[in-house]
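We give the chain.
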Amino acid sequence: MRLFKIVVFLSLILLVLFIAYTLISTGFFRTIEPTGHTTIFKKVPVKGAEDIMVSSVDSFALISATSRVTYPPEVEEIGSLFLMDLKSPHYQPIPLTASLKLPFAPHGISFFKKADGNYQVMAINHIKEGHSIEVFELMGKQLNHIETLRDASMIRPNDLVMLDENRFYFTNDHGYTEGLGKLVEEYTGIAVSNVVFFDGKEYREVADGIAYANGINLDRKRNLLYVASPRHFLVKVYTQNPDGSLSFVENIPCGTGVDNIELDTEGNLWIGAHPNLLKFNAYAAGKREIAPSEIIKISYRKKGDYSVEKIYVEDGSEMSASTVAAPFGNLIFAGNLMDEKFLILEQK
């Protein structure tokens, strides 16, 4: 009887410690204090604009949007890619995929400007059949589908970054996609997701041991690859090697659930983030009406020398569950998980 009581007592202690760890590590106790660094310039009525990428050279934004009623999808969801001409003062999204003849629910996106001046575009696609990467060519304001890429390495792809027309990295945000393994992974924060590299012929894992590998981007000038780990509130920094392999440099603690990563012309990182992951999960499951949003800027100079600045923080009243912050001049294009609109913010 005494042994039974000891076992029960120790089990209760472990349970309390686990609950405390989960609450602390997901930002449950964080106070949301709005910053005064930005004002809302425009609200753009596009639902679920989860990823946004800006071309500073040709002054346009590409927007990936899906309603995301459920994930994984229980019904075939309809999503779109939009183009926004940033030279126009109206900032109107132009649909690009209305005539696409395949199920399309885009997630992470990337593009690469080719020698002929057109852009090759890639988009993670989540449909009932499974996961794929759709490849397009963007010519002006016309988008043509080229091919569909599928591979067993696409466990649960989240985001990608193109090196050129044929090579790219993508993240898998889970190592387990169902059952107890998925539940344990999400609530304990075990680091079992990864980064995969496609060299134009073969797919291979180049980084592992990441907790919910999410946004990914490449600083081409410095050969640095950045990967967001929202479950551990980190951005992981790697050196890109000539063969596509990665060498780990360091972790950048961010204090928030970092999502997609965009770079400005000076190499600074702009990240949409979730300061409270439990509220984010409840919002994504339809159990909360709003979830807090945050945008941070990371100035990374060298190993051990960086700064993290809060640019935009609010409780979700203006926009819930921010996922991306794409800078363009004095503007920030801030997307989200499944709001009815996204925000264009103006920096003060």
The chain has three helices and 24 strands. The helical segments are 2-25, 179-188, 277-284.
